[in-house]
Structures are given as structure tokens and as C-alpha cells.
Write a structure and sequence with these properties.
alpha+beta, 11 strands
Length: 384
Amino acid sequence: MADPEKASDNGAWLDEHFPLHKAVFQNDISRINEILTTTCLPKINLDQMDTHGNTALHLAAMLGNIEAAKLLLEHGANVGLKNNDGWKSLHEAISYGDRKMIGLLLSSHKKQSHRSLTSKLPEIQNHLESLNDFYMEIRWEFQTWIPLLSRVMPSDTFKVYKRGSKLRVDFTLTDFNESIISWTRGDMSLLFDPGAPKSYQTLLLNNKDEVYQRVRDKNRHLNDEIDLLMGCDIISSHISTRPIRFVRAKGWFMNDKSYNIGEYKADLFNIKELCLITRKRREHLSQEDLRKNRELNKAFSSGKLPPDDGSSDDDDKNHHRASLSPPPKPEFAWAEYLRLPDGPDSHLGSRKKRRLQILKSKECWRCVRTFHSQPINCWTFLKF
């Protein structure tokens, strides 16, 4: 049994290192505002993680403290960070089930992602300019174990043109109707120019109708996106690259495999120990949600989508999902939370998470071809 005095000192030491977290945990809005705005206090790292990898924004989402979340986001808190269990603050907000909190974090996540991409445009432009101009074709297709169905599954060939820092991608698959085997074809092009004015960096062309549209991120369908998030599993996936190894592929007689692609000779490497780790939660779903999701999965497996009941056409707020009843507040104090080991017992949100988290790990078998005249290092491969 731990010494009470030592445990108390440990808790006090931790309190001094996470003042913002403590204020959010206690939902002390005036204290949060003081920490964020008072210049005489030491500068606070908004994205600092506590002993469980949670940022202050994670705690606000888990506890449903929306005013605290607003203050944190106004000062630039990062929505995309994951805690020790692999969950973002948006995931925790979905679990809690407050529509306003989900909408706030989802909208902020979009804005932050857009800013992050915009900040990388000069680097992307430099990398594209460093490559030789090229043309290539990428064919993709869906496959299934159901006999004969693969022949009518969607497929397309992307034609990619690169000149300088500009990219053009031509494709023909544009839309699908009520059935997964009924597809709409067209003549479309996606143009990307990182050096163009902001509103014209990405354009979508309809070559047949001779019209174009600018690709912009709007929150027009935010309520529909919230409904979708609240009605589906919470999923977090990442590819583990720490143990990754590149191994030369061997032929029948253990000779190194090489291919000629056009005028280039390419060496073939297998990527070993590349794992896809997926975490899934569904504590926020009702039995009706689970039933509908099972039916939808069966419909996709059979090659057809369920008929549209038309309920999604009306954007009236009365047709959107209601917020869930908030889970009980945690039964432990701030200092006790910090000293708890990682796991369900230290989770501040729904207690149902204890039995509804699913973890899957699957090794991905992939290969990569490299050209002697166009070498690529491991850092560049993993980054892009």
C-alpha cells in the first residue's frame, strides 16, 4: 500500500505541472481564462499532455465542458492530437454525445487541417519542381469473393500529368446511383497548382460540359456530418512504422527481382513489419444504431445499397440526431486521476468504454519499386 503522505506530495507535484488541465477538470472558467490570458504567468503549452497523454482539450471533451473547449480553441489548441489510447478530442466528444461540442471540434479540426495543408504548400511545390516531368496511369478496382460480381464493381484509370509544380489527374468515374453496380461515367479533370492564387489552387473540370468549379471546404453539411459521426463506430487507425524494414524481393532462384518499366529499370523491395493498428469504440451507439449498421454492411456485401427513404433530403434540425444524455461525472478527484494507471479506470468519459473498445492489428504486405536514376530514401517514402 502506497504511503499517503508520499502520494499526496506526488499529487501536489503533478498539480504544479498541469494547471490548465486542473482548471478544465474542475470546469473553472475564470481560472482557465486567467491562465490563457495573463502575461505575468509562465507561458502555458496548450498541447501539453498529462500522465495519460490527454491534452486540456481532451479533458474538456470527455467532461462535456464546452465553454472551456471554446476558450482553448480560441487560443489555438490542437484538435488532432491523440492520447495514450490513440484517441483524439473529437473522438471523445462523439463518445460524450453533445452535438454542440462535436460540431465545435469538427469545425475546428477542418480549419486546422486546412491551415496545416496550406503551410506545407511551399514544400510540396519545391518537391514537385525537383522531380522530372512525367505522365503515368494508375488503375484501381474493387474486388470481392462473390462470383462474377467483381466484373461489375467500379474501376477506373487515373491519368496523371506532371509539369513543373503543376498536376493534372484525368478520370471518368464521377458518381453512383442507388445501386452499387450502377455508376455514372464522365470526362473529368482535377487540376492542382500550389503556386496559383488561393481560390484557384485546386479546380475540378467537367471537360464534356466545359465548366469548372473551385474546390473549397465549407461547413454547409456540418449537421449531416455530425449525424454520421454519432451513428457510426468511433475508429482510430494508424500505421506502425517503427519496426519497418525494406527487404529485396527474391525470385525463384533467390536472385534479386527487377522489372523494366518503360525505359527504367526498377528494383523490387518488400516492406516488412508494416502494421495497420485499428481501434474501435461504440459505447455511444444504441441497439437500433447497431442493427442499422449491420444491415448496411450486409447490403454492401450483397452488392446493393439499401433504398433511400428520403429522410436525409430535409435539412430541418428536427430530423437530426439529438444529443445523448451525459455520462456520470468521474468519481475520483483531480490528484487521484493523475496517479491512476492508463486504462478504462482512468477514462473520464462514458463508463461503457470498458467493454466496448476493440483493438485489431494486421500486418500489411506491401512492395515498392525504386529506380536507379530516381532514388528515394526511407524518410521521403514515409513522409509522403
